[in-house]
Amino acid sequence: xxxxxxxxxxxxxxxxxxxxxxxxxxxxxxxxxxxxxxxxxxxxxxxxxxxxxxxxxxxxxxxxxxxxxxxxxxxxxxxxxxxxxxxxxxxxxxxxxxxxxxxxxxxxxxxxxxxxxxxxxxxxxxxxxxxxxxxxxxxxxxxxxxxxxxxxxxxxxxxxxxxxxxxxxxxxxxxxxxxxxxxxxxxxxxxxxxxxxxxxxxxxxxxxxxxxxxxxxxxxxxxxxxxxxxxxxxxxxxxxxxxxxxxxxxxxxxxxxxxxxxxxxxxxxxxxxxxxxxxxxxxxxxxxxxxxxxxxxxxxxxxxxxxxxxxxxxxxxxxxxxxxxxxxxxxxxxxxxxxxxxxxxxxxxxxxxxxxxxxxxxxxxxxxxxxxxxxxxxxxxxxxxxxxxxxxxxxxxxxxxxxxxxxxxxxxxxxxxxxxxxxxxxxxxxxxxxxxxxxxxxxxxxxxxxxxxxxxxxxxxxxxxxxxxxxxxxxxxxxxxxxxxxxxxxxxxxxxxxxxxxxxxxxxxxxxxxxxxxxxxxxxxxxxxxxxxxxxxxxxxxxxxxxxxxxxxxxxxxxxxxxxxxxxxxxxxxxxxxxxxxxxxxxxxxxxxxxxxxxxxxxxxxxxxxxxxxxxxxxxxxxxxxxxxxxxxxxxxxxxxxxxxxxx
Length: 648
Known about the structure:
Helix 3 (about 65-85) crosses helix 4 (about 120-130) and helix 13 packs across helix 14 (about 440-455). The protein is globular. The strands form eight sheets. It has an eight-stranded mixed beta sheet, with helices on both faces. The protein is built from 20 helices and 33 strands. The protein is α+β, with helices and mostly antiparallel strands. The chain folds into four domains: about 1-60, Ubiquitin-like (UB roll) (Roll); about 65-240, 2-Layer Sandwich (Threonyl-tRNA Synthetase, Chain A, domain 2), CATH 3.30.980.10; about 265-295 and about 335-535, BirA Bifunctional Protein, domain 2; about 550-645, Anticodon-binding domain (Rossmann fold, 3-Layer(aba) Sandwich).
């Protein structure tokens, strides 16, 4: 007999060799019908995995992230099986599950494929799924694996096999006629895959290398019920309407120019003003917490990044060095701000009485992202981080970390991000070569993060192996209005960079001590944050942040003088207003203002001009009524103040 421990702490005895599915049956028939995968100890396994020793066990259904991942991974194999029947001789790269669905990278050889072919592929997938094909795992020797894919002439799988460690377990998974190289795990069979939708195609270089062949990536999603697919497609349509690239163009916030270069956004006047308001907002918050603003160059000597360790870890992801023609010095476009801030700390002697030192910068950095990975403002080559670094004593660490959490939570409240979870990213204890610094420093840093998160009552999840190379971190995963998750604010504890830069302070006993460093960026980057905010609000920014708070709409040209007079008055009252001077009908002007998501439309005619008033129409609400100009201005100012206080 073996003992199995369940998530609630209960322990039951079973015969050795029992499978997770059999355990589910012993609990309830309903659970057995819905279970998709399991975790035995720390490993996700299939439902027919034999448990032969005392273990912990978790059972996953569609309601669990792990259950969806296995469901979608198996769906990728189902799609591959359908494609192989429809397009004989094609070759397969990789086909993982992703956050919403799955994809497979495929070399279609001499076939051409587009979204027009999706209905036929979906029909074949449904046909195969209906056959309730078992998904069978088989462990094979390296020679068997190489022989199989040599016979298939699939150079992609052969390359993957040859890159595996000599002692690696190699497994195949077969569903129907299709066999794939895969670690798994997978579903029992294909019967539970009921609703199928292929979404789009994209080009993807093999193994992300622009020098290698470009494959065709097909994205898809599947569900256990058609109703869930229908709901997802409605959500997808709403997401298209909210796409920040579409809204950014319509609202004239930013654009990209091929002549300037891919992944390098250009901010237009309205977008620049919006960004500056975000920066001013954060600066005002930081000032209350004792931060000082700094500015650093956009380039740095390569030796700076060798000292920090960034060159060794990320040199390949940086733009090529800039070499001075006479002296032969090498400079990098700044890929991060922290080494520069270490030099600021080192620029003068520090006493324990000076600590903590808190320095902040809206610093623009540059990283080489492959063109296929670029995506609007969320994945760019040049971006501005709302970066800050705190240098403190070990005794001050937890308190400073808690204050950073306070700043992030205040920002979320002000901008109406109500749902979030804190992800604690720790070091991978196995792949230690990924990291720098002593185990002792890592243990202290990880403990500080866990204690601070607990003290603040944060809902947390722990991810092993997701730490930065120099220290563990706390990332805030935020849900937007459509329920999508985004990684925004981040806080990191670092004992290592201060050591590498030989930073110190003099303590009360006149001894030299090394400070601890906290890296933090509540927005993450201005570009990504604006993109997320655009999609979260659908462009309906809060009143304090929106580019224009009001637009003045004269009903005819003879009221233009009054309109311009109102604009001057609003400027003096700190209300952002513009005038629509076009010779268009009032209805057209209102429709255009609604389209541009301007919060208030101020319609003026003969009566309003005579009474020094405005007829107010609110975006998304309709007519509010006629009011004196001063009353309207007070209403806007009061709403703005309440929003910044977190009162909606």
